[in-house]
Amino acid sequence: MQNSEEKIRCPWCLGFPQYVQYHDQEWGVPVFDDQVHFEFLILESAQAGLSWATVLKKRDGYRRAFADFDYKIVAEFPESYVQELLQDPGIIRNVLKIRAAINNARRFMEVQQEFGSFSNYIWSFVGGKPIQNSLKKGDPSPATSPESDALAKDLKKRGFKFLGSTVMYAHMQATGLINDHLVECFRYEEVKL
């Protein structure tokens, strides 16, 4: 068996150990659990304009501050708690992003009511099956797709915030709706459905 240093990985993850662990264990794994989708929606909307490394380093802070990503609790956060969060160095202290997370928790539950689950809703944008891209080393990595465009447009119509097409493409990659591991990466075949 190869040791982890010998495995071929997507080059973007080689910056620091948390990135490698995230790449090897989570990124691109198809997600059907609503709470996991909500976690990634919070983290990815917080990322807007920042690096994913910054967000990953604060993930535990977000987990603590956002009730372990329980959207039912987040939807009920009062304004007094927003003010507390603005003082919390464990998260990205941007009032618009914090308020967006609370708003998005409420919209998230509306989608659940309409579709039975958020997972049912989001997977409908890829026909219920992951898109298998075939990126090779040196290929440009897409930032959006027709599917992420359609998803972001629909989310905006439903009142979600900070979830444009680029953010939603990242969400689709992270949660396995799109397999953007390089074909030579050891995870490419492992995450295929």
TrEMBL record:
**This protein's record includes keyword Zinc:** yes
Question: What's a single GO BP term from this record?
Answer: base-excision repair
**What keyword terms does UniProt attach to this protein?**
Metal-binding, Zinc
**Alphabetized InterPro entries for the sequence:** Adenine_glyco, DNA-3mA_glycosylase, DNA_glycosylase
Binding of Zn(2+) occurs at: C10, H23, H181, C185
Q: Which GO terms describe its molecular function?
A: DNA-3-methyladenine glycosylase activity; metal ion binding
Q: What protein name applies here?
A: DNA-3-methyladenine glycosylase I
**To which species is this protein native?**
Algoriphagus boseongensis
Taxonomic path = Bacteria, Pseudomonadati, Bacteroidota, Cytophagia, Cytophagales
